[in-house]
Each structure stands twice: as C-alpha cells, then as structure tokens.
Design a protein that fits this description.
The chain is α+β, with helices and mostly antiparallel strands and about 160 residues long. The chain has one domain: Nuclear Transport Factor 2, Chain: A. Helices cover about 45% and strands about 35% of the residues. The chain is built from four helices and seven strands, in the order αααββαβββββ. Strands 1, 2, 3, 4, 5, 6 and 7 form a seven-stranded mixed beta sheet that branches. Strand 5 and strand 6 form a beta hairpin. The longest helix is centred in the first third of the chain and has 27 residues. The radius of gyration is 21 Å and the shape is globular. It starts with a helix and ends with a strand.
Length: about 160
C-alpha cells in the first residue's frame, strides 16, 4: 500500500511540474520575445528560399557583417565579404550546383534569445547535385547557429557551425 501512495505522489508531482512549467513558460513570452521569434522565423524562411535558389545576393543578405561560417574539414570563413567570396569561388568551381531540397529542423523550443542574440540548435536535411550529370546526394547535418538582432529588428546569422 505504501508503494502505491509513493508512486501516486510521484506521478502527481510530475503532472503538476509539467503543467506548471508549460503555464509559466507561456506566460514568460512578452511582446518583444514574440516579435523576436517572428523575426527569427522570417530569417529561417529567407534562408530556405535563398539556399534553394542559390541567389548570390540573398545568400549574402542572411549574414551579419561579422558572420562566421564553420564547415567540417575547412577553415572558418570570417566576415560577410569573405563568405560572399567563398560562395563565389564555390559557384565558379561548380557552376551547375543545384539544391533540390533544404529543410532545417529548428523548433521554437530549441531557440534561446537573450540580449539581442539567439542560439539555436537543430538538424538539417538537404539534397543537392554538384553538377547536372551527377546523381543527387543527401546530407543530414547537426549543428548550431548564433543569430544577431540587427538595428532594424531583423535577425542575421552571426555564426553557423555544422558537425
């Protein structure tokens, strides 16, 4: 009998904690945080759009001036202009490169926003062709992205690192 009471108290505590956490979490979102999350989501949508189109201007516009891109097996690319130059070099080497599918999976619960910075973790699925003759290749990357709020309230990538 005592075990049953202990189990019931434990389960009641879990339920109370779950509902209290969810209620307090939803109360903590103020107007600024809601606006920030909407602006971060806009960056996510812009990122998908420009990655699929491979538009050079769009691929640059999602980055902060001091952005850093870290890819496995390559040195970090530091600064928006360096990222633009790195993209141009890649496209000159692979002029027929095409992204067929790009789907970052970052949920609101995976985003922490503090003082004009947002840290998000997640994974990305992508399918691409290096040339028109190549078969499609797929990747599944895990990584983190650090975003920086801009003076106009928009968000840009400050650091992107993939595993």
């Amino acid at each position: 009998m005592r075990r049953i009471v202990v189990v019931l108290v434990f389960l009641a505590g879990l339920a109370i904690g779950y509902f209290a956490r969810n209620s307090v979490g939803s109360l903590r979102k103020n107007g600024a945080q809601v606006a920030d999350l909407a602006a971060v989501e806009k960056l996510h949508q812009d990122d998908i759009k420009v990655t699929l189109s491979q538009d050079p201007k769009g691929l640059a516009d999602v980055w902060d001036e001091n952005g850093v891109r870290i890819n496995p097996g390559a040195p970090p690319v530091v600064g928006k202009q360096a990222i633009v130059d790195d993209n141009a070099k890649f496209h000159s080497e692979y002029p027929d490169f095409k992204v067929l599918q790009y789907a970052p999976n970052i949920k609101e619960a995976d985003i922490a926003i503090v003082d004009g910075w947002a840290l998000e973790v997640g994974d990305t699925e992508a399918t691409f062709k290096m040339s028109a003759k190549d078969n499609p290749s797929s990747i599944h990357d895990k990584g983190m992205r650090l975003l920086k709020r801009q003076s106009d309230g928009s968000w840009k990538f400050a650091l992107v690192g993939l595993k």
